[in-house]
Amino acid sequence: MSGFSSDWLALRAAYDDAARDKALLDRLRDWRVRHGGIGILDLGCGTGASFRALAPLLRGAQHWAMADHDPALLKAIPDHTARWAAANGHELTDGTVTGKGFSASLVSHRADLSAGLDEMPLEGVRLVTASALLDLVSADWLASLVDLCRRHSLACYAALTYDGRLDWTPVDRLDAEMHALFDRHQRGTKSFGPALGPDAAQAAAAAFRAAGFSVETGRSDWQLEAGDRDMQEALLAGYVQAALEIAPERAGEIEHWRQRRRFAIGAGTSRHRVGHTDLLALPRG
Fold it and tell me: Are 242 and 186 in contact (CB under 8 A)?
């Protein structure tokens, strides 16, 4: 379950690609080359951003099962894949992308991930991927993911998990309070139950280690500069909405904070960092 609109996914895509921890991607590639053809289960796939980011890097023969609850996002995958393949000189034939050193087929699988993982297509799967998902899930759901990977000896690459680090330049006197309200909202009850929010990255690393996996993490922060106005505006709108849901009685203060932050964005003086953590959990042996 992605829980994101296609417009938001399109806006964030370039920032996600730039942010992914490169050392962790190298570790993932090194692990993958020790295997032959490989199946990948992409949880909360959206329009296929993880596929587009990882398929050329993983190399070799791949089969991707793309799982999401949103039929509109799943329907958009072929078009996104075709445009990406054409832009990068890959060939797309009958649902298979062929490029230099790799061939990757993909099929869509509509699934309500919040209902559990028991019905996931696992034939041939060796790797589970997810992007911007773990901070939305509950501790129980995370435990079910770890258990699935343990029982089937699956590697897990979970990228771009919000980890609670936010900062703005220039600093505003209400930044810390708005940050705290946002984090409270992130820990609220969502489709998966009480969300782990900014605690998810540490919780996932601990859970996979306790299950016997070799675990590495790396930072994948968004670094937004003055020219990234659309992204800053989109994030600011999300923070304001979250703060209003948590503290509607502070609507006046929140609106004044929004106006000050928007002024800085419009003036070209605003910079913003959003902290994320990538995780790679590999089964031992």
Answer: yes
